[in-house]
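Summary for the steering committee. One of the milestones for this cycle was to obtain a three-dimensional model of the protein with flavin-adenine dinucleotide bound, which we needed before selecting residues for the alanine scan. The sequence and ligand used are listed below.
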Amino acid sequence: TLSTMEETTGRSTKRKVVVVGGGLVGALNACFFAKRGFDVEVFESREDIRKAKVVNGRSINLALSHRGRQALKHVGMEEKIVSKGIPMNARMIHSLSGKQSPIPYGRKGQFILSVDRANLNKELLTEAETYPNTKLNFDHKLQDWSAETGLMTFARSDGSNEEIKADLIVGCDGAFSAIRKQFLRRSRFNYSQTYIPHGYMELTMPPINGEFAMKPNYLHIWPRNTFMMIALPNLDKTFTCTLFMPFEDFEKITTGDEVIEFFQKYFPDTIPLIGVNALKTDYFRLPAQAMVSIKCSPYHIGDKCVLMGDAAHAVVPFYGQGMNAGFEDCLVFEEIMDQLNEDFSTVLPEYTRVRVPDDHAIADLAMYNYIEMRAHVNSKWFLFRKHVDNI
Ligand code: FAD
């Protein structure tokens, strides 16, 4: 019978899955689909970051937590990534006077990990390529696609186009998803996006005498109510400091001396650690970057297309869960594929049903933590609550 034939041949081998976007979630997703035996192709607009000289993009490092690790474990990647991560057992709150007070993330022995974004992306792409049924295409930017036929058009930098058809299109093309544009044209698709007034800027704190300039196993926070700075450790013994501040405040600082004045007032303990000259120049290297929160629903169209990662839910970074939630999307989809026997016509609606409320909750929590981290973490109320809720 057909069903026994499907069991023995594995019906997934016949079907083609195209993952649009080879960022963190797209690369991991390729591993999930490849492991199930689908014919997988990934199309990424940028060049292969494993060959690129300069990797442009967002944050240099990220906090990997339990959700993300569970998904990595499923494709056998947990140890590889964890071994190159730096455990952060607690937040380290820096007061204006330079006093440092740790606030643990959980119970003794629990921690989140600081991981290098570029390395994580490279490792996941390399892992995806180990599957013979996976092909990675770089320098392919999605231009247009049809939800009716599954036909996609990609543009290459030499001006040529490539057309390809898939049984399932997985939109992992980030917060400004080209896949999602087709969703927006359809009836009963809910969509909202909110830019927060804050921007972010990254600054590097170099090692001192070959050692970390601050205690490495912490996520350092300088909460200053309307703005804040955080710092996460890197394997090369640097810290990446991220300053989060309203755009209008970023714009008020226009000279090197004003940068120092500002740091003197709010982050005096970091000046000798980052260095006066570095501060004066690095502040002006790149403009502050915007942060957006995007919610939408449903996450699928028929049995043809599904959104995952930032394409489905861009969140503000204050809860450290954007990538982790995107990784969890892959795992949740995988579980539904098992439950519903890889039938896209039932798997996709079920994925929307279970996943939308959870991802919207993460977006709300991230927005809440936007205030928590820069203001409440300063207060006695917070110190009291951490004993009660273990936050
Ligand atoms: P992306 O990483 O944006 O990847 C999308 C990919 O699609 C890119 O490679 C892009 O080139 C490609 N693409 C785009 N358009 C097209 C197209 N038309 N055709 C083909 N390819 C295309 N998350 C955490 O979990 N922990 C943290 O600590 C954390 N810190 C953060 C700090 C900052 C400052 C920011 C901004 C974010 C942070 N995040 C964090 C969130 C995290 O960066 C994102 O959630 C994560 O990158 C989402 O991965 P993604 O693969 O969905 O999207």
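Key point for the committee: The chain is about 35% helix and 25% strand.
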